[in-house]
Specification:
The complex is a heterodimer of chains A (about 290) and B (about 290). Chain A has 14 helices and no strands. Chain A is an all-alpha fold. In chain B, the strands form three sheets. Chain B has a six-stranded mixed β-sheet, sandwiched between helices. Chain B has a four-stranded antiparallel β-sheet with strand order 2-1-4-5. In chain B, a hairpin with a 5-residue loop joins strand 13 (about 275) and strand 14 (about 285). Chain B is globular, with a radius of gyration of 20 Å. The chains are: A mainly alpha (about 290), B alpha/beta (about 290). Chains A and B meet through helix 7 and helix 8 of A and strand 6 of B.
Chain lengths: ~290, ~290
């Protein structure tokens, strides 16, 4: 009797269409972002994800103003920001982190300015914090298209991207164009940032494109395995976060990122080779022998 | 069986400038052919790495042309004619790849666009690892290796790639003496197989040991040609301009009779270059390899 009540309660979210939708969309976004996170953390570009997430805000605001699909606006301004960062870095002696900080805060500020001048056009909070539970069917379609296209391209190009990121010179010597691959990566990252914006919001996108990769990195020494693990972690935590938010009535984004951090901490302590416990075992074994 | 192209690198009056307007290479010309190990020698900041970047297509000469096997650089790279062994500092040793994964990267140019390795690719990797003596380490993450082992892995990648031209950037830094001679033996074998190796180094002592050609470089080509006639004290003095340690023993310090011959030791703290003989007729002394400390 009691068991069946618990089961009913646990299945309750699935009775609502908007919850099922939120869970599936979150899982999809979580998986794609996790894929990209594997590259991002190895290149030391984590801040870049944060920058992109903030840079799409003016695009979203302008898109609402003009009545365009909001993904188009977000994507455009994300790309402009990424190119801006690359060019400013090329043409000045400034360090990358300074350039990133400069460009993304500028974009974010412009975005907030546009929104504040036209307060009715868009809800700032839904951009900054995300609102997956209220996602429209149109937006779901956008997210699905972005995710499907990104996953297809990544499926074909993941090895080329890995090579370009690991060793640019060698990538050239086997006939690849590292510059083009880097641009491709940033295009995908911008697209996925836009998708993730609705799930967790601009402020927390950084977690989606860093934490799953960082966790998987502790669990394996092979890049292919790392990608698979990261995607499983990303999808599972995102789906679970959306699911739990039904009961807690809390922000989905916050829950997703908290779950991702919990998984990370578990790996940090218990990872078979690179975890803290393993490190302690190893140093104890070294002392003993 | 494909017909092998005869390897060559030819630079004609190249000038390479950065976006900031600084030209790192000015009016440099040289030509290298098959069955050659050529050393690229010069001080730090002499533009050696700019030259390598130009050969790898990262930079384009503002003046002059570079051709590899008679083709423009980018075409030669597309055909996989050039393999590159990076400097250890340029590699991210924490990257989650195993030794065999790195060597397999050498095969990417031979695979279809999905980069799924076939039997030939696996065989090439096995063979390359065997040849550098790293088969036992194939399942290790690259960061777990010693300096010499790391070098051998990237050399194996170049072997697996099967390129006619191999560029090596400072292959002896951080490498133990045993690995150094193993690398030298391997390069000699590749030379005898008809390949062209271009080695950037400031390990002066090893140059006469295994390089048959030398390019002395400082912003431009100061001298180039066969090692015995090019790698001389006078040319090195120009290339390094007083930046080398220089020890000379002669006259009564060395001989009790009137013997004119003298010993000259040149080093920039790597393995020293030792010359012995009468003035301007000095020859390279090649010490016993095992005797080096």
């Amino acid at each position: 009797m009691f068991m069946s009540q618990v089961l009913d309660l646990m299945l309750e979210p699935f009775a609502y269409n908007y919850m099922t939708k939120a869970i599936w969309v979150s899982a999809l976004v979580g998986a794609v972002c996790a894929f990209l996170s594997c590259y991002l953390i190895l290149k030391g570009w984590a801040l870049m994800g944060d920058a992109l997430a903030h840079s799409v805000v003016p695009g979203v605001a302008v898109a609402y103003l003009l009545g365009l699909p909001y993904a188009v606006g977000a994507f455009t301004s994300g790309i402009i920001a990424a190119l801006g960062i690359t060019f400013v870095k090329r043409l000045t002696m400034l360090r990358e982190d300074a350039v990133i900080g400069l460009v993304f805060t500028t974009f974010f500020a412009i975005g907030l300015l546009i929104v504040s001048i036209n307060p009715t056009s868009v809800n700032v909070q839904s951009i900054v914090l995300g609102n997956i539970l209220a996602i429209s069917d149109e937006d779901v379609m956008q997210v699905i298209i972005i995710a499907a296209v990104s996953l297809t391209i990544l499926g074909f190009k993941w090895k080329d991207l890995m090579l370009a990121f690991f060793d640019e010179s060698h990538a050239r010597s086997v006939g690849l164009n590292p510059w083009a691959l880097r641009v491709l990566f940033f295009v995908l990252l911008s697209a996925c940032t836009v998708a993730a914006l609705q799930t967790v919001g601009a402020v927390l996108v950084i977690a989606m494109v860093v934490t799953p990769g960082a966790t998987a990195y502790l669990l394996t020494d092979r890049f292919g395995v790392m990608i698979c693990l990261a995607m499983v972690i990303g999808a599972a935590t995102s789906a679970f976060g959306a699911y739990v938010s039904f009961f807690m009535d809390g922000a989905t984004g916050g829950l997703i990122v908290v779950f991702q951090t919990l998984v990370f901490l578990t790996a940090f302590v218990f990872a078979p080779k690179h975890g803290r416990l393993a490190a302690r075992r190893a140093s104890r074994a070294a002392v003993a022998s | 069986m494909t017909i092998r192209l005869s390897p060559s690198i030819e630079a004609e009056n190249i000038t390479v400038s950065y976006a900031s307007g600084v030209s790192a290479v000015r009016d440099a010309s040289f030509k290298l052919g098959a069955s050659t190990i050529c050393a690229l020698v010069g001080v730090n900041g002499s533009g050696k790495s700019t030259l390598f970047k130009t050969l790898m297509g990262f930079l384009t000469p503002t003046v002059g042309t570079v051709s590899i096997c008679g083709m423009p650089v980018n075409m030669a790279l597309k055909k996989g004619l050039v393999a590159y062994v990076p400097q250890s500092e340029d590699v991210d040793w924490n990257f989650p790849v195993l030794v065999e994964d790195v060597v397999m990267m050498g095969r990417y140019g031979h695979m279809n666009f999905l980069r799924i390795p076939g039997k030939v690719d696996h065989a090439a990797v096995d063979q390359a690892l065997e040849r550098v003596g790293m088969s036992d380490f194939r399942k290790h993450q690259i960061g777990e290796l010693s300096g010499g082992q790391k070098k051998r892995v990237f050399l194996a990648r170049a072997l697996a790639q099967g390129s006619e031209i191999i560029l090596l950037d400072e292959p002896f830094t951080g490498v133990d003496v045993k690995t150094e001679s193993a690398i030298i033996d391997l390069l000699r074998a590749l030379r005898d197989d008809g390949r062209l190796m271009f080695v950037s180094t400031h390990n002066l002592g090893s140059v006469p040991d295994f390089c048959d050609q030398v390019v002395l470089f400082n912003k431009t080509v100061l001298a180039y040609g066969p090692t015995p006639t090019t790698f001389t004290e006078a040319n090195l003095a120009v290339a390094f301009g007083g930046l080398l340690r220089h020890v000379r023993l002669g006259g009564s310090d060395l001989h009790e009779d009137g013997d004119e011959r003298r010993v000259t030791v040149l080093t920039d703290d790597e393995r020293p270059l030792v010359l012995y003989g009468e003035r301007d007729r000095e020859k390279h002394v090649k010490p016993e390899r095992n005797g080096i400390t």
